[in-house]
Amino acid sequence: MSLTQRSSWLDADLDSFRELAHAFCQKEIVPNYERWAAAKQVDRDLWRKAGDVGLLCLSIPEEYGGGGGSFAHEAILLEEQAKAGDDAWGNSVHSGIVAHYVNSCGTEEQKRRWLPKLASGELVAAIAMTEPGTGSDLQNVKAKAIRDGDHYVLNGSKTFITNGAQAELIVVVAKTDPGEAAKGVSLVVVETEGAQGFRRGRVLDKIGLHGQDTSELFFDDVRVPVENLLGGVEGQGFVQLMQQLPQERLIIAVGAVAAMEAAVEQTIQYTKERTAFGREIFNFQNTRFKLAEAATEVAVSKAYLDQCIERHLKGELDVTGAAMVKWWTTDRLSRVADECLQLFGGYGYMNEYPISRVWTAARVQRIFGGTNEIMKEIISRTL
Fold first, then answer.
1. Residue 279, Cβ density class (10 Å: 0-12 exposed, 13-18 middle, ≥19 buried)
2. Exposure string (b/e) for 125-148, b if CB count within 10 Å is 16 or more?
3. CATH superfamily of this structure's domain 12-120
4. Most buried residue among 30, 172, 218, 251 by CB atoms closer than 10 A?
5. Burial letters for 31-62: b for 16+ Cβ neighbours within 10 Å, e otherwise?
6. pTM surpassing 0.70?
7. Rounded average pLDDT per 10-residue block, the chain, 383 residues
8. Beta-carbon-side half-sphere exposure of residue 17 (alpha carbons within 13 Å)
9. How confident is the model over 242-281, as pLDDT tens digits?
10. CATH no., domain 239-380
């Protein structure tokens, strides 16, 4: 059953790819969720398995080891992860965000050096933006990377970093010119193996996304070779961030709509199986009306998301459009997940039911990638 019409950007090749993505998620993710949640991270071997079957860096050119596909391939994998109930594997950050920073902003040498290893799963990637005292205000990060001969000396701390406990390649947002605001920001790539002064803090104890290794990172006089400055030119970091944020926000929107659809489908099934007062819960008018409202929210959100994906595939999705789809879909996800959990009654509050994971995971999506309040601020500037 599908709650929405077939997306206009799909084709036969993408349908075939969906079969691969579905099979991988069902085999490698579904059986392991509870173990990963207890460990607060996925198995490191998952990344290599995904690389072996070609599920990493799907939209990175083949000449750099990627899949040579488009954002449509990334979207399908995200949808299949949601159908599998996955909120642990941070591939969207690895493949959809960090790999694209390297591909779009990196020098030729940087692309050939790092992308093949990201595509194979030899390296796991993270991006370190947020600091303990700085959330969405990336112009005023406190981390500093000051040049000293052939190295940058990196000092600072980061928090809420997805893949932080496993990442071996970390793109760090830092000030190479502390006297400037946006113009002083650069992206410095830290290769963690053997990096003196780099250490990982605790894996954070979150209310949701339990299997995802969200960590604190600390940099104390870490010496980073100058050739690890992304793009090779200081002061370009803020521009690089702004160029890539629309895709990051679109990724969040894809995950939100897929999770919303999964929640409604789970709830329809549950209410048709569960009985109360001698009849199926689905046969109460309130239940049908709530599900009708939720199904409509999914259909409307998916229609706008598909429009944004089409625009992005043509290179036409702007910052405002990405902000709109991010705030709208994540806001609707929270509403729909809450209404669906209510229809499960007390069982909805039990971790053994997937709806509980959808509900807890939904809340953070209105925060990361730029809070929804920031999204509205971005939108308002164009009015």
1. exposed
2. bbbbbbbeebbbebbebebbbeee
3. Acyl-CoA dehydrogenase/oxidase, N-terminal domain (1.10.540.10)
4. 172
5. ebbeebbebbbbeeebbeebbeebbbbbbbee
6. yes
7. 83 96 97 94 97 98 97 97 94 97 97 98 97 77 96 96 97 95 96 96 93 96 98 95 92 97 96 94 97 97 97 95 98 98 96 93 94 96 94
8. 23
9. 999 899 999 999 999 999 999 999 999 999 999 999 999 9
10. 1.20.140.10
Report which of 314, 288, 335 is spatially closest to residue 72, judged by C-alpha positions: 314
Span 125-235 CATH architecture: Beta Barrel (2.40)
User: What are phi and psi for residue 9, nearest 5 degrees?
Assistant: -85, -5
Beta carbons of 51 and 106 less than 8 angstroms apart? no
DSSP E strands, the chain: 125-128, 144-148, 151-162, 169-175, 185-191, 198-203, 214-225, 275-276, 279-280
C-alpha pair distances (Å), 159 with each of 102, 134, 151: 22, 10, 24
Q: What is the pLDDT of residues 299-354, one digit of tens each?
A: 999 999 999 999 999 999 999 999 999 999 999 999 999 999 999 999 999 998 99
**Whole-number Å distance between alpha carbons of 254 and 277:** 38
What residue spans in the chain does CATH classification 2.40.110.10 cover? 125-235
> What residue spans in the chain does CATH classification 1.10.540.10 cover?
12-120
CA dihedral 374→375→381→383, nearest 10 degrees, is -140
Pairing of strands 198-203, 185-191: unpaired
Residue 97 CA to residue 254 CA, distance in Å, equals 14
* Paired tokens of 13: 């090749």
